[in-house]
Structure prediction request, 118 residues.
Amino acid sequence: MKSLRWATILICLFAFIATNKAESQEACYYNGKNIGCYVSGAGDKYMTVRWSDGLTQTYTQVDIKKEYMPTFGRNRLTYTYKDKYSGLWYYYCSLNRAKSTLLHSSNGNSMEFIGKCW
Prediction:
């Protein structure tokens, strides 16, 4: 009985660690306004952004491209994500890897994640 209790505690601890590792707090901006957020699954098929004001949105990756940047002599990956309203968001990482950006294709809304590139 005692070993079952320890096994349960260890399973809960590992689940807690895995959940916290998958979701990281970021310095985030939405249309230039500083808002805290948590990002999980970034760079994966599904990416979820949970804003500090309670709004949560999941984006589905629909395309990935590699573009060569001749000035810097290296490739950069760009992703296209779709939100639940079928809006397209273009993801790119700054060349110095200081921030990543999601830019809405039609309305110009933007999200920036400082200090993080996926």
